[in-house]
Please model this.
Amino acid sequence: MTELRTDRLLLRPVRESDLDRMLEYRNLPEVTQWLLRTVVDPDAFREAWRAAGDNPDDHSVAVLLDGVVIGTVSFELTDGMGQPGMPTRTEAGLGYTFDPAYGGHGYATEAVRAVLARAFDELGVHRVTAGCFADNIASVRVLEKVGMRREQHGVEDSWHAELGWVDGLTFAMLRSDR
Model:
């Protein structure tokens, strides 16, 4: 995968040298409260990101501001549902994790917007989906700002370690929505 540049950010494949920095913010309580896996084992985390680099369907990126990794955008191609003859790799799942020290400046929105543009313009993706806890207002705002539509509101469909059953949201965007 090639690098992407936005007005303020560099998006590029995750490097070995990024992993310790990513772990610094990944396991912060204010980050883990919104993730399905609250804490990750550092060795397992590193190995998962190494494996992602070898997966041709994984187009995840590190997001850098002035040379500092401030987040990641996860993006993986999948086959959609359909009858025989359906094109492959037409759908994708999107996620993101950012260091809260860089929150409130639109960096996540800028990075996600760039990844979506690549998905539709270069990778030929038909549909991208993303999910979040309904109470994660910052994540909801990112998905709305980039133009994704709220398609599902699952009432108490997600287990939260501290809050119990909480609502989850699913957002999506089609290439034709752009």
The chain has a mean pLDDT of 94. The domain at 4-177 is CATH 3.40.630.30 (Aminopeptidase). Residues 14 and 102 are 19 Å apart (CA to CA). The longest helix spans residues 107-121.
